[in-house]
Amino acid sequence: MVILVTGASGQLGQAIQFIASNYLEFKFIFASSEDLDIINQERVNYFFDTNRIDFCINAAAYTAVDKAESEIEKAESINVFGPKNLAVACKNHNAKLIHISTDFVFDGSSSKPYSETDTTNPLGIYGKTKLDGEQAVIDNMNEYFIIRTSWVYSQFGNNFMKTMLRLASERDSLSIVSDQIGSPTNAVDLAGAIMQIVVKSQDSTSSIQYGIYNFSNEGIASWYDFATEIFRINNVTINVTPIVSEAFPTPAKRPKYSLLDKSKIKNTFGIEIKTWQESLLQTI
Ligand code: NDP
């Protein structure tokens, strides 16, 4: 079986490459944005015409949440037309698609973890384009898995963990938002969950349940909690002050609460999920 991974140079793309050697039964094609620009419909079709692809994992995205507010067209083409091109190509070539989405499709007004069927209401352009990207997949094919995740970090690429460690090396004190609640997600754990879905989908004895699934690490954190745990594990001494979101204005509004209910992915695929603290410790 041949698995195409788009956006292969991003955090998730690199995390999948990191664990790919555990799946020697599969052939992986890792395509960076230079190898395959997902907004180029002709290139996408040509890529699928000239390579046998059974599964596509779309790790490509426009992820600059604040910049998206002023780069609406760019965010839209990568997050909406990109997944649409992949969905159409997958359908035409009988390939399955795993597409990654975000907790930012929700407005954060809930007080209990969001299930896959809860009402969406993105607060910013990034969340809106990601939601429209989900719909583009749903409208154009049947054999898809959409995985909504949150607060992704890893040893790869740019992310909150790396930013905190860099800032701590430059400053004596930091103020971190403490009124946004969610769950950090280790990209390597997300990659593992995606591969478990791929493997289970190959099992002819189990009936495949396509659709939307939530995945994050277990547990609850604010950005302040996440930062203080990063510093604790790294033995970094720094003065960290919790602040409210209003004291740290950003171009894009973010959901105040974005915990995801993971019962569906756990029950359907038997996926066991580590706590974010355990996973952070392993990453560091
Ligand atoms: P990254 O920003 O690390 O990686 C995204 C990758 O997409 C980059 O390698 C980028 O390549 C590539 N890309 C951008 N445009 C195109 C294009 N037109 N064609 C092909 N590739 C392109 O993202 P993550 O790995 O962190 O995110 C993975 C998924 O998880 C995304 O769908 C994201 O929306 C979702 N997600 C991420 C969260 C996070 O906190 N990071 C939280 C919730 C969901 P290049 O650098 O060359 O432009």
Overall description:
The chain has 284 residues and is α/β, with parallel strands linked by helices. The chain has one domain: NAD(P)-binding Rossmann-like Domain (Rossmann fold, 3-Layer(aba) Sandwich), CATH 3.40.50.720. It has nine helices and twelve strands. It has a six-stranded parallel beta sheet with strand order 2-1-3-4-5-10, sandwiched between helices. Helix 1 (11-19) packs across helix 6. The radius of gyration is 19 Å and the shape is globular. The two termini are 33 Å apart. The mean pLDDT is 96. NADPH dihydro-nicotinamide-adenine-dinucleotide phosphate binds at residues 6-7, 9-13, 32-33, 37-39, 59-63, 78, 82, 100, 102, 130, 149-152, 157.
Note the topology:
Layout: E1 2-6, H1 11-19, E2 27-31, H2 41-50, E3 55-58, H3 72-92, E4 96-102, H4 125-140, E5 144-149, E6 152-153, H5 160-170, E7 173-177, E8 181-182, E9 185-186, H6 187-202, E10 211-214, E11 221-222, H7 223-233, E12 239-243, H8 263-269, H9 276-283
Parallel strand pairs: 1-2, 1-3, 3-4, 4-5, 5-10, 6-9, 7-12
Antiparallel strand pairs: 8-11
Helix pairs in contact: 1-6, 2-3, 3-4, 5-7
This protein binds NADPH dihydro-nicotinamide-adenine-dinucleotide phosphate.
Low-confidence segments: none
Fraction of residues in helices?
A: 25-40%
Can you tell me the number of structural domains?
Answer: 1
How far the N terminus sits from the C terminus, by CA atoms, comes to 33 Å
CATH topology: Rossmann fold
| Backbone shape | globular
Judging by the overall fold, what is the CATH architecture? 3-Layer(aba) Sandwich
- Tell me the structural class: alpha/beta
What is the residue-mean pLDDT, rounded to a whole number? 96
